[in-house]
Design brief:
Elements lengths: L39 H9 L3 E7 L17 E4 L8 E4 L10 H15 L5 H9 L1 E2 L2 E6 L2 H17 L4 E6 L25 E4 L2 E4 L4 E3 L13 H8 L10 H16 L10 H13 L8 E2 L10 E10 L3 E12 L2 E13 L7 H23 L5 E5 L2 H7 L8 H13 L4 E4 L7 H6 L3 H4 L3 H5 L38 H6 L5 H18 L11 H19 L1 H8 L15 E2 L5 E2 L11 H4 L2 E3 L4 H13 L5 H8 L3 E3 L2 H10 L2 H7 L24 E12 L8 E11 L5 E6 L5 H12 L5 E3 L12 H10 L1
Parallel strand pairs: 11-14, 14-15, 18-19, 22-23
Antiparallel strand pairs: 1-5, 1-6, 2-3, 4-5, 7-8, 8-9, 9-10, 11-12, 12-13, 16-17, 20-21, 21-22
Helix pairs in contact: 2-3, 3-4, 5-6, 6-7, 8-10, 15-16, 19-20, 19-21, 20-21
């Protein structure tokens, strides 16, 4: 029952989602169909572009579309007027409200009707394809004559398909004069009050040709919960974003409730209750808003520009688009649409949010251009110099987050002109920070845009300030660092084998000694030279990584903090850093009592671990680490050893698991009961050489064996085929078979006449042998 309806107050709704005893419903088995319904926003925007408009409603649209006779059995219903009567079964012959496919079927019929009648009613067919939202028709034209033609063609076109238009309304009485009172829209308002009609969720006043908002004045439900708050926010239906500064306050408040991690029916804290009471008590002021429907577009000589503004705060970012029309030297600015989004819960820098706002205004402007079918200049404004610098450069200069959005902006509207605007003159600032409804009513910046936008372009804000030199989010390309590296460390990073590294270092040391006047005429390196070269590399590595600790130990102090504190480090007589401890009086080797300390992330440490890993024949972590610690103590040694062993190719191959092949199904003969050897497999082996006994002087026999395997019992039957029939051969064959635990039958004959085999087997054996 709909009391507000002026025509059909009682409506029958069929529940196609009702589950049966089997757990299925009719809608579960019906396709939704592709989306062919235009966007609600596009219908409203195109309606605002016409100077003369009209609207109508199709009477019982679904009931005018017949369903194919074969499909009507799916639309059976049961009905009786009285409980004492028998239940009758009916079949619904038309598209039924409540089924999943109903919207698509009805709209698809309208599309087909427009296609079929396009030759007779071209203007009406175009309007039927683009200006209809379900059963509501919202269209118009630039003048009364064109509007009358379109209206008449729509009436005749829909009449050809069996549809009747009613509830006619218009901002021009001439369009309603030729219609009967029955098909005109009527309201129940008082005579001296202007008539207000509902248009796709919005209220439209035909006399003033303006939109208004009618919000239900409901009292707050106590206790206040997140469910109650969301229910109230959902009542703010604003498809074009005219109330964005008010709605964003509600969105931000709702996000704060999510951050508190409250359940749906938990009572709100006192601080949140007070904040919501402040927002809610101000909402009735929305009823005083009046938004002009007509944007001012027509076919006369005029200059049209689209201006979009973007702005962001720490809590939200917004975009708003205005239409600037210059006619006879006078300019008018009209609010077209806006969009808002709350900032992510995860903290995002303000420049990034400003870039998101710029991306949002770009997409919004592109959508409006497509919906209004405009090919006019687009001016986009931002109060962030960093964002403007990002947009005007190539995306590859910035990090991924910035580059993706800059690329989207540049590709969406490549010809857009970007400007800088001060924050005080940016209307998007109202939507990003929020404004109470009582303050928004007379907010000139929001409804009319900045004052300078009504003036000549020469009075617009000048070019933006020069962006900072050190722009954030710059992608790092390459860095060249000049560092003086001594020769031993250079050798560390050049070779991947410890033995080769030690020998090359020893040769370098010998050359240096020769230059200093000392000559070594030994043709080959001595072990002492190789050992000294390795110690030199250890000292270089320690000086690079433990410079502070070595300086303290040389001055007689003990390191009080750092990663060497637990090792009680000490310096030997040659300046090497070693592990301390209480093993000074033990009989162990000096290197075992006080091993050399090495860092974990070092080229030398890696070479030493690889060397001892190979020395232990690719030993595991424990063996490699124990061998290494007999002379060297690596900080975080276990982790370093694991990393090296993990990259060892030989160890990887040995650790690899063999692939297992998934076996196929067994053949029928293998899984079916049958007599032994009814289904058999046969294979042949040979030649096999048999000896009558061990040692020299005993004769060898050459034989071939036929192997028969029973598929059912898996029994094995062997037959030997040979040119020999002697007893010694037979005995040798029986010994051969008995060692393999098989039962065998011996058949032998000379030539190719094989005893005990059928004709097919004889031929096969003869060919094989």
């Amino acid at each position: 029952m709909r009391e507000s309806s002026t025509t059909t107050k009682l409506r029958v709704v069929f529940n196609g989602s009702q589950k049966t005893n089997a757990g299925h419903s009719l809608n579960d088995h019906l396709h939704v169909g592709p989306k062919i319904l235009p966007e609600l926003v596009s219908i409203l925007l195109r309606w605002r572009a016409h100077a003369v408009v009209f609207s109508a409603d199709m009477e019982k649209m679904y009931r005018q579309v017949l369903v194919h006779e074969e499909d009507r059995d799916l639309q059976r219903i049961c009905w009786r007027k009285d409980s004492s009567l028998e239940i009758n079964t009916y079949r619904l012959r038309t598209v039924t409200y409540g089924l999943t496919c109903a919207p698509f079927l009805a709209i698809r019929v309208l599309r087909q009707l427009a296609h079929d009648e396009r030759d007779r009613f071209p203007i009406g067919a175009s309007a039927l394809s683009s200006d209809v939202y379900v059963d509501d028709v919202l269209s118009g034209a630039d003048d009364i004559t064109s509007a009358l033609i379109k209206q008449n063609e729509l009436i005749e076109l829909l009449k050809a398909g069996g549809f009747t238009l009613r509830k006619w309304t218009s901002n021009t009485p001439e369009l309603l004069e030729h219609l009967t009172p029955e098909v005109r829209a009527t309201t129940t308002s008082i005579v001296w009050q202007p008539e207000t009609f509902h248009m796709l969720g919005l209220s439209w006043q035909s006399s003033s040709d303006s939109f208004l908002f009618q919000l239900n004045t409901t009292k707050l439900q106590h206790p206040l919960t997140k469910r109650n708050v969301l229910s109230r926010i959902a009542q703010l239906f604003d498809p074009l974003g005219w109330l964005a500064p008010v709605v964003i306050l509600a969105k931000i408040f709702m996000q704060s409730l999510w951050l508190l991690k409250l359940e749906w029916d938990d009572a709100l804290p006192d601080e949140q209750v007070n904040r919501w009471i402040e927002i809610h008590s101000d909402l009735p002021a929305i009823s005083n808003f009046r938004i002009p429907r007509w944007l001012g577009l027509n076919s006369s000589q005029q200059t049209v520009e689209l201006h979009g503004f973007g702005d962001a705060s720490q809590l939200a970012y917004a975009a708003v688009v205005y239409l600037r029309i210059i006619r006879d030297g006078q300019s008018s600015v009209t609010l077209v649409s806006s969009k808002t989004k709350v900032a992510p819960v995860k903290q995002v820098s303000l420049p990034r949010l400003e870039l998101c706002a710029a991306n949002l205004v770009t997409r919004l402007a592109k959508t409006i251009l497509a919906m209004l079918k405009l090919d006019r200049p687009v001016h986009l404004w931002s109060d962030s110099t960093i964002t403007l610098a990002w947009i005007r450069a190539h995306p590859t200069k910035w990090t991924t987050y910035v580059a993706n959005r800059v690329a989207d902006i540049q590709l969406s509207l490549p010809n857009a002109i970007w400007h800088h605007v001060e924050s005080a003159s940016n209307p998007a600032d109202c939507a990003s920070r929020g404004v109470l409804a009582s303050d928004l009513q007379d907010h000139s910046l929001w409804w009319r845009g900045p004052e300078w936008l009504h003036e000549d372009a020469n009075n617009w804000p000048s070019s933006p300030r020069k962006p900072p030199n050190d722009l954030p989010e710059t992608r790092l390309t390459s860095h060249a660092v000049a560092e003086q590296i001594d020769e031993p460390y250079h050798l560390l990073t050049k070779y991947s084998n410890l033995t080769r590294l030690s020998r090359i270092t020893a040769w370098c040391c010998r050359v240096n000694l020769t230059k200093n006047g000392k000559r070594n005429l030994t043709p080959a390196l001595t072990p002492s030279e190789i050992a000294a070269a390795l110690l030199r590399l250890i000292r270089v590595e320690q000086n690079r990584n433990f410079k502070t600790e070595i300086r303290l130990l040389e001055s007689g102090q003990t390191p009080s903090k750092g990663q060497l504190l637990k090792l009680s480090p000490l310096l030997d007589d040659k300046g090497h850093l070693r592990v301390g401890g209480r093993l000074k009086n033990s009989l162990l080797d000096p290197d075992e009592k006080h091993p050399y300390i090495l860092p974990s992330r070092s080229p030398l440490t890696k070479l030493l671990i690889e060397h001892y890993h190979k020395e232990t024949l690719h030993g595991g972590v424990q063996l490699t680490l124990a061998t290494l610690r007999q002379r060297y103590w690596v900080i975080g040694g276990r982790t370093a050893v694991k990393a090296v062993i993990h990259r060892c190719l030989i160890c990887v191959r040995h650790r690899a698991t063999t692939a297992t092949q998934i076996m196929g199904n067994l053949p029928k003969a293998r899984v079916t009961r049958a007599r032994p050897f009814l289904h058999s497999g046969v294979d042949y082996a040979g030649p096999i050489y048999l000896r009558t006994a061990k040692g020299r002087g005993h004769k060898s026999y050459k034989a071939y064996i036929a192997v028969f395997v029973c598929f059912s019992t898996r029994a094995v039957h062997l037959e030997a085929v040979s040119d020999y029939t002697t007893d010694s051969f037979l005995a040798a064959f029986r010994r051969f078979v008995s060692r393999r635990g098989k039962c065998a039958t011996l058949t032998s004959d000379c030539g190719t006449n094989f005893v005990g085999a059928d004709a097919e087997l004889r031929a096969l054996l003869a060919t094989t042998l």
